[in-house]
Amino acid sequence: MKEIKVEVPTRATPKEVWNAWRKKHRAEHGNGSFKEGYIGQANFGKKAAFFEMDKVEEGKSFCILWKAFFVKLFFTHSVEQSNKGSMISYTARFKGFFAPIVYWKINKKLRGQMKDSITQFVYALENKIPFR
């Protein structure tokens, strides 16, 4: 199975990170969306894609599943206590018949987008910028 993983440290506690994730997700997808089995929709310009909350481990991690043609993408967000706050991890796992091809095609771009996303999240969290 192919995998991309990025990690970013933060001064925030794991509890603060978890609460911010929950608040951000609920602001974007509504109440009740931050639980296993929830099926939601994300809009990318004129295109929409559906996702499923695959796993939620309260206070520690959650996994969002995206399905494409013979490929499943599992995006796991996790937080762990560190010496100076927390370490936030963002992992993308590729499964399925076309997973190696999709990984090869989008690996570098997706890695950069994941790093940007988690870095922006940490900046907003540490600077108390409200999530919308």
Choose one word for the global shape: globular
End-to-end span in angstroms?
A: 34 Å
Going by CATH, the homologous superfamily would be START domain
Q: What fraction strand?
A: 35-45%
Helix content, binned percent: 25-40%
Please outline the major beta sheet. 6 strands, antiparallel
Note down, in words, how this protein is organized.
By secondary structure, this protein is of the alpha+beta class. The chain has a single domain (2-126), classed as 2-Layer Sandwich (Alpha-D-Glucose-1,6-Bisphosphate, Chain A, domain 4), CATH 3.30.530.20. It is 33% helix and 43% strand. It is built from two helices and six strands, in the order E-H-E-E-E-E-E-H. The protein has helices spanning 14-29, 99-126, and strands at 2-10, 39-44, 47-57, 61-68, 71-82, 85-95. Strand 4 (61-68) and strand 5 form a beta hairpin. The longest helix has 28 residues, at 99-126. The chain is globular and about 40 Å long. The protein starts with a strand and ends in a 6-residue tail after the last helix.
Highlighted features:
Alpha-D-Glucose-1,6-Bisphosphate, Chain A, domain 4; 132 residues; globular; 2 helices; alpha+beta; 6-stranded antiparallel beta sheet
Summarize the structure.
The chain has 132 residues and is α+β, with helices and mostly antiparallel strands. The chain has a single domain (2-126), classed as Alpha-D-Glucose-1,6-Bisphosphate, Chain A, domain 4 (2-Layer Sandwich).
